[in-house]
């Protein structure tokens, strides 16, 4: 999916390096160990003679007959003692060097094995590791039990057993419904061993459903990012299709904003974090995937929140790669209120369509309103048309903010976010910013502990995450 330059393997990670060390060290150590680190004795030196004699040589290295010790030294016992001491020193030095060489060889072999295994196991593509990771670790024992895999265009996805999905969801009981989608419900699944996941059941009678199923599987198994929901596996049973995802315990942004809690769990800073996370996920799709991916259905019900309110983009049934969009085989799809005007009117699809939808989500976060609201039985009003005149009027803006967070933020930050939203929902796509620019304008508004660069000053009521008036 992504074309990443193959990063050069660092020297320490190269198995060849370790093999080199393994082969070279004994060669380097051997001569040292053999002479105890001392300069090689010359044939005529007393040390050489002593060593030769001590080693049991009958003839000294120069070939002459050794003189009797008594004639060579006035104190034979002292000389013999010196020779023994010298010999002991040599043996100790040789032993120490031999042990160092041995330990080095063992360590080098060990490192070589580790480096080789890592090198063999490294994925071709870059993978973001922040997130999914807990889900994946927890998954290993479960996936081991599902030993069949579906081969898709680029890789493998775990094919899960229908009976286990049935058991984990209490036979797809209503009490386990997490959400309702276009082709069926999403259920909470509790697997043996305590692993939990979300299972989407698609009742596929038509081709459209089958296409979305295949598309979502194909894309999700190729992309991995901390702001994109993780794929766990899939299952096909009769006309039903199942996609298993990591469980996002705080549900969708739509439920949080427009459900029973009416956004009360989402402070200003958490809302800004959700916007930032979503922009990061989109930036990954637009800028780091090759070919780029256009989500085509970004909306608050497709932004899911985990236990820490980290936001992840989900629902890739309609997503397309830029290669596919030009084929003219795309049915006009999306959700009313989020669809960019040029796509709705001319079918013109670009990354800027996602930027428009992002702008609508930003307005939902700011205003706590649905993207399209019913005014009268046959009359709807879009959040964009309704809010635009007030968004650009600094005196009116604070009055239309979601009452749950009204007056809890720094005014300057509010004006900045409103300006970003206004730009994103421009009718002319070329006036809209790239998602990268949006991302960079949001980073300074999110506290450091939530993934931005904003330093919270505990003294200032405007920068606390509590809902204090400013
Ligand atoms: N991984 C998940 N964790 C928790 N809830 C989820 C998960 N996936 C989906 N849901 C819930 O189910 C709803 C529908 O899921 P979605 O994948 O968007 O289906 P559809 O493609 O039919 O729109 C979401 O809006 C959300 O409320
Ligand atoms: Mg959806």
Explain what you see.
- It contains 16 helices and 13 strands.
- With 470 residues, the chain is an alpha+beta fold.
- Among the domains are: 134-246, Phosphorylase Kinase, domain 1 (2-Layer Sandwich); 253-450, Orthogonal Bundle (Transferase(Phosphotransferase), domain 1).
- The protein has a five-stranded antiparallel beta sheet, sandwiched between helices. A two-stranded antiparallel sheet has the order 1-2. A two-stranded antiparallel sheet has the order 8-11.
- The model is unreliable at 1-73, 118-138 and 464-470 (pLDDT under 50).
- The protein binds adenosine-5'-diphosphate and magnesium ion.
- Residues 178-179, 181-183, 186, 198, 200, 229, 245, 247-248, 251-252, 255, 301-302, 304, 314-315, 317 line the site of adenosine-5'-diphosphate (ADP).
Determine the number of helices (DSSP H or I, runs of at least 4 residues). Answer: 16
Shape: extended
Could you give me the name of the CATH homologous superfamily of the domain at 253-450? Transferase(Phosphotransferase) domain 1
The set of bound ligands, ions and cofactors reads: adenosine-5'-diphosphate, magnesium ion
Query: Mean pLDDT, nearest integer?
Result: 80
Task: Give the termini distance in whole angstroms.
Answer: 46 Å
Q: What is the gyration radius calculated from CA atoms?
A: 35 Å
Main sheet record: 5 strands, antiparallel
CATH topology of the domain at 253-450: Transferase(Phosphotransferase), domain 1
Q: Which ranges are low-confidence, i.e. pLDDT below 50, for 5 or more consecutive residues?
A: 1-73, 118-138, 464-470
Helicity range: 40-55%
CATH architecture label of the domain at 253-450? Orthogonal Bundle
Report the count of strand segments: 13
With strands numbered from the N-terminus, the spatial order across the biggest sheet is: 3-4-5-7-6
The structure class reads alpha+beta
- Regarding CATH, which class of the domain at 253-450? Mainly Alpha
Portion of residues in beta strands equals: 5-15%
Binding site for ATP: 200
GO biological process, one term: signal transduction
Protein name: Protein kinase domain-containing protein
Domain Protein kinase: 172-443
């Amino acid at each position: 999916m992504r074309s990443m330059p193959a990063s050069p393997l660092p020297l320490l990670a190269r198995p060849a390096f370790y093999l080199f060390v393994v082969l070279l060290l004994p060669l380097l150590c051997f001569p040292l160990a053999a002479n105890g680190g001392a300069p090689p004795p010359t044939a005529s030196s007393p040390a050489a003679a002593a060593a030769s004699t001590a080693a049991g040589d009958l003839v000294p290295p120069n070939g002459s007959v050794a003189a009797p010790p008594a004639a060579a030294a006035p104190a034979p016992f002292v000389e013999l003692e010196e020779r023994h001491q010298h010999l002991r020193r040599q043996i100790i030095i040789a032993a120490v060097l031999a042990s160092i060489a041995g330990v080095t060889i063992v360590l080098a072999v060990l490192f070589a094995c580790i480096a080789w295994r890592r090198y063999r196991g490294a994925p071709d593509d870059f993978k973001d590791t922040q997130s999914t990771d807990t889900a994946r670790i927890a998954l290993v024992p479960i996936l081991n039990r599902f030993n069949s895999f579906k081969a898709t265009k680029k890789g493998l996805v775990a094919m899960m057993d229908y009976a286990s999905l049935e058991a984990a969801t209490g036979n797809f009981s209503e009490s386990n419904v997490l959400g309702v989608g276009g082709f069926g419900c999403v259920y909470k699944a509790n697997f043996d061993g305590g692993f939990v996941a979300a299972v989407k059941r698609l009742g596929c009678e038509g081709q459209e459903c089958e296409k979305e199923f295949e598309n979502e599987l194909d894309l999700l198994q190729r992309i991995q990012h901390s702001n994109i929901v993780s794929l766990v596996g899939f299952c096909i049973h009769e006309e039903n299709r199942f996609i298993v995802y990591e469980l996002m315990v705080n549900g969708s942004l739509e439920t949080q904003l427009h459900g029973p809690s009416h956004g009360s769990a989402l402070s200003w800073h958490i809302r800004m974090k959700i916007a930032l996370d979503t922009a990061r996920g989109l930036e990954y799709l637009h800028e780091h995937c090759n070919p780029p991916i256009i989500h085509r259905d970004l909306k608050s019900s497709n932004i899911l929140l985990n236990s820490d309110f980290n936001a992840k983009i989900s629902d890739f049934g309609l997503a397309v790669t830029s290669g596919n969009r030009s084929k003219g085989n795309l049915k006009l799809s999306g959700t009313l209120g989020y669809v960019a005007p040029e796509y709705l009117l001319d079918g013109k699809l670009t990354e800027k369509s996602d930027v428009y939808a992002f702008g609508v989500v930003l307005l939902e976060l700011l205003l706590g309103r649905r993207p399209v609201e019913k005014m009268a039985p046959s009359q709807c009003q879009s959040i964009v048309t309704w809010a635009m005149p007030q968004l650009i009027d600094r005196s009116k803006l604070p009055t239309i903010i979601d009452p749950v967070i009204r007056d809890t933020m720094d005014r300057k930050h509010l004006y900045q976010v409103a300006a970003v939203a206004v730009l994103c929902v421009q009718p002319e796509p070329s006036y809209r910013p790239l998602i990268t620019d949006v991302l960079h304008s949001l980073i300074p508004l999110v506290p450091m502990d939530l993934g931005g660069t904003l330093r919270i000053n505990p003294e200032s009521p405007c920068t606390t995450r509590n809902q204090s008036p400013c």
